[in-house]
């Protein structure tokens, strides 16, 4: 090798040794501009105003509350907490004994439906997030009425379930998780929050049904379509059918029974349900759940109905809210929640919604499911289950989408009506929507409340035109 070739690397090493900082900086800094003078005509095009179909920003607490207040005003006006004589319409004020003529005063919605169990939970959350006592009072007034009616009518219903009368008989004599679970969940949430209502008798009724009386498969999984009492099986819609909806209708009640009683068997049962439903019904490739599963069938109707996925998602965040972190099943529930949220993320539309059938873009965009996802994802961000950087902007966009569906008088548009399960897409595609579908009101209250909490905790704003996480608020 000649001398000149040896000298080149030696000189390079010497220069690098003498000027290490200078060389390091020059390697990282952008090169100097090659042109001087006026900016090119396209230099600021990236900053042009965009006409987004859904507001593209994080709402502040006052804006969110304004939406919730419209919903509250409508519901407070149209869901009277009153008992009347069914013949005369006169108020019934003495609830110390059972009156066979007494009924709940009609309103737009029923006070003892599973949808209203969710609404009570939503009102509690909205009251906590906003500090507005009207939301909490709404729940206390109606819970107190239900407690009074239970004391007056339950002895007769228990003695003669078939022939007795009661204004809230579906709750006092439940036949399905829909009759008991979501209401029971709201009772225990209120009790843990310090409500003075006497819930003992009501929780005894609904908690006992959910944990001991609802039909189950041989491995203990909650199911529908059990024995019909005449030697056959109920068709719901087929024997031994799992409905994804039932993860919410029963499992949070189990977990909260664990919290209120201190008995770990309820936590064990709640975790078992999440794990066993997920094993049968979660599609890990798609990251979402099927709506229905029939035990014993080779193939199953993989209809990925949005609201049912919402019930499953909400069930998991509610279980994690009270499940002890040292429980052996805690991580299994947490990882299933994370997998579901990650899966759902890929299906959010450009307007911020999710479709009625999640993975079928030609099905309509549905409000109640979007509200449930907003709540559950924002709750997961707030509790640290998932990254705020990834999922906070998504939750804000979803909330903004839901808010566009709240009318000036507080009704909510785009809510799919009550829905059974089916084995074909047409059933789900053509389910009607209605502002009188109760399923969207509680989720909207929950969503708004959780978004308020999330945006108080974390800052989100525009960075290079994109809505981004900007840190934890001090």
UniProtKB/TrEMBL annotation:
GO aspect biological process, one term: carbohydrate metabolic process
Domain of life: Bacteria
Keywords: Hydrolase, Signal
Signal sequence region: 1-27
InterPro entries xref list: 6-hairpin_glycosidase_sf, 6hp_glycosidase-like_sf, Glyco_hydro_88, PolySaccharide_Degr_Enz
GO terms for MF: hydrolase activity
Alphabetical list of PANTHER family matching this protein: UNSATURATED RHAMNOGALACTURONAN HYDROLASE (EUROFUNG)
Protein name: Glycoside hydrolase family 88 protein
Lineage: Bacteria, Pseudomonadati, Pseudomonadota, Betaproteobacteria, Burkholderiales
């Amino acid at each position: 090798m000649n001398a000149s070739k040896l000298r080149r690397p030696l000189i390079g090493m010497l220069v690098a040794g003498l000027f290490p900082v200078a060389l390091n900086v020059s390697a990282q800094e952008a090169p100097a501009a090659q042109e001087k003078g006026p900016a090119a005509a396209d230099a600021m095009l990236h900053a042009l105003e965009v006409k987004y179909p859904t507001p593209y920003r994080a709402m502040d607490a006052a804006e969110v509350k304004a939406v919730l207040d419209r919903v509250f005003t409508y519901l407070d006006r149209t869901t009277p907490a009153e008992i009347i004589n069914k013949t005369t319409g006169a108020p019934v004020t003495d609830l110390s004994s059972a009156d066979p003529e007494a009924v709940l005063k009609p309103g737009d919605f029923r006070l003892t439906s599973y949808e209203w169990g969710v609404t009570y939970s939503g009102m509690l959350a909205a009251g906590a997030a906003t500090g507005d006592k009207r939301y909490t009072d709404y729940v206390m007034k109606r819970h107190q009425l239900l407690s009074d009616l239970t004391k007056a009518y339950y002895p007769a219903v228990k003695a003669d379930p078939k022939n007795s009368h009661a204004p809230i008989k579906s709750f006092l004599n439940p036949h399905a998780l829909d009759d008991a679970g979501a209401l029971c969940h709201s009772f225990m949430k209120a009790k843990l929050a310090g409500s003075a209502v006497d819930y003992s008798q009501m929780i005894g009724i609904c908690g006992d049904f959910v944990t001991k009386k609802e039909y189950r498969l041989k491995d203990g999984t909650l199911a529908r379509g059990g024995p019909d009492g005449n030697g056959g099986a109920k068709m719901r819609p087929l024997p031994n059918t799992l409905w994804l909806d039932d993860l919410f209708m029963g499992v949070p009640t189990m977990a909260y029974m664990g919290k209120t009683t201190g008995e770990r068997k309820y936590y064990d049962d709640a975790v078992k349900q999440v794990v066993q439903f997920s094993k049968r019904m979660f599609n890990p490739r798609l990251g979402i759940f099927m709506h229905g599963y029939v035990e014993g069938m080779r193939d199953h109707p993989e209809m990925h109905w949005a609201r049912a996925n919402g019930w499953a998602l909400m069930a998991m965040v509610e279980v994690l809210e009270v499940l002890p972190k040292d429980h052996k099943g805690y991580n299994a529930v947490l990882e299933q929640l994370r997998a579901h949220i990650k899966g759902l993320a890929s299906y959010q539309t450009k307007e911020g919604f999710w479709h009625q059938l999640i993975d079928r873009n030609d099905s309509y965009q549905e409000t109640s499911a979007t509200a449930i996802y907003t709540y559950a994802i924002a709750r997961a961000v707030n509790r640290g289950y998932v990254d705020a950087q990834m999922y906070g902007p998504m939750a804000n966009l979803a909330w903004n989408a839901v808010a566009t569906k709240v009318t000036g008088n507080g009704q909510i548009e785009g809510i799919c009506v009550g829905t059974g399960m089916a084995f074909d897409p047409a059933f789900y595609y053509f389910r009607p929507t209605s502002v009188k579908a109760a399923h969207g009101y509680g989720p909207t209250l929950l969503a708004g409340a959780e978004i308020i909490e999330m945006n108080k905790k974390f800052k989100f704003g525009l960075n290079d035109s994109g809505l981004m996480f900007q840190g934890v608020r001090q």
